[in-house]
Amino acid sequence: MTQSEKIIRKEILSEGKISFARFIQIALYHPKFGYYSRINPIGTNSHYLTSPYIHPAFGAALSQHIYLMWKFMKYPNKFQIVELGCSTGILAETIYSYSKSISLDFANSIQYIGVDRTLNKKTDFNSIKSNLIPLKNISGCIISNELIDSFPFHRFKIINNEVKEIYVTIKNNKLISILDQPSSKKINQKLSQLKFQLPNNFEGEIFLEIDNLFNSITQSLKKGFIVTVDYGEERENLYSNQSRGTMQTYFKHTSGASPFQRIGEQDITANIDFSYLIEAGLLNQIRPVSLCSQKEFLEIFGIKKWIENIQNSKLEQSKKQINLINIKKLINNQGLGNFKILIQEKNTNIKKAEEILPEIGTNQQNFFNLPTPVNNISEVENTFMELAHYRMH
Would you call 251 helix, strand, or coil by DSSP? Predict the structure, then answer.
């Protein structure tokens, strides 16, 4: 029995039952024994990979996008980029490195700040260990990549047209799930906004911590944009395309184990309700600008041209193949390409998404003349990446 499980059992014995969100809070984020506190699960030597590790084209495209935000905001001398869930800092490194190719004035304006609730590694930029944003008067951009899916979530089940919450308790010395009345009115509120009735025995998840996130963002962001990258759907699609929930567990590149196994040693995650993100933003004077798939986003910023440039490059054959395989993973519709990218704004007066996207003309031509991002990993490192797991549903 892991230390995390012992703590969970002790709390259940005291309280009778705990919500699944509380179970995840302990299993993933206990300061000493939680999954994210004990290890850094992301990277080529860890439990799974994210887009910034797979190919620098992801960070390069974000750098271009943020440049257009900086341009839209009239070229400020100080432009803050706050990355939530910064982990090892590989995305920060790519964004800043590529910014120098776009514009030295842009690069010199950047003040990059990383925020992570389980910061386990010294980074080359300013970083803060926190689960919220302990900053004020931010002017620039707040970004996150595969962060919200790692938040604790509540689980529910529909029984005879009534919403029941799935709790965790102990029976015959085993951790089991039981049903009871929802612990928060917000669970019913979110489900009542659906345009259709969920069927009997339907199971799903709700990330109530999204509210705390946007409360923190609106208190910290004075003016600028929010970029959220994650897997999920808008509410109608999310709840119409599955009936047994989207919860997954991951342990060393394998998935499917019960959440009650390897507690504190495996990841627990679920798909994001992007409608919730938009609603939480609007309640905090944060407006949506655009929502698209990662494939659509990267194609807007020239990934097809980069693929063509790599194919025609003078790279040695093995590195060329590594780059082509990995860059194409970013736009695979059956995987990372189906991730969503939500852009929101506060106090920028933007009227339409096209104002911070490449246009047919000057912006796009300038981007096409920029260097093609290339992954310099070795064949040995790439062999590991081929075996590694990418969190997706």
Answer: strand
- DSSP state for residue 144 in the 8-state scheme: E
Check if the beta carbon of residue 3 is closer than 8 Å to that of residue 33.
Answer: yes
For residue 131, the model assigns a pLDDT of: 79
How does DSSP classify residue 338?
Answer: G
Please, which residues bridge with residue 390 across strands?
Answer: 49
At residue 77, the 3 state secondary structure works out as: coil
For 217, counting Cβ atoms within 10 Å of its Cβ (0-12 exposed, 13-18 middle, 19+ buried), the class is buried
Phi and psi of 365, rounded to 5°? -60, -40
Give the long-range contacts of residues 8-13, CB within 8 A, separation 24 or more: 8/168, 8/175, 8/263, 9/170, 9/175, 12/168, 12/169, 12/170, 12/175, 13/170
| SS3 at position 318 | helix
Contacts of 20 (CB under 8 A, 6+ apart): 152, 153, 154, 155, 165, 166, 167, 168, 177
**Residue ranges for the chain with pLDDT beneath 70:** 39-48, 120-124, 252-256, 360-365, 378-393
In DSSP terms, 175 is beta-bridged to 170
User: Quick check: pTM over 0.90?
Assistant: yes
Q: For 3-390, which CATH class?
A: alpha beta
Sequence spans of domains, the chain: 3-390
* Beta-carbon contacts of residue 178 (< 8 Å; ≥ 6 apart): 17, 166, 167, 168, 169
123 to 35, 87, 119, 120, 310: CA distances (angstroms):
20, 9, 9, 9, 30
Q: What is the mean pLDDT of the chain?
A: 90
Predicted pLDDT at 364 = 63
Q: Which residue has the tokens 């097809």?
A: 304
Q: Is 104 exposed, middle or buried, given 0-12, 13-18 or 19+ CB atoms closer than 10 A?
A: exposed
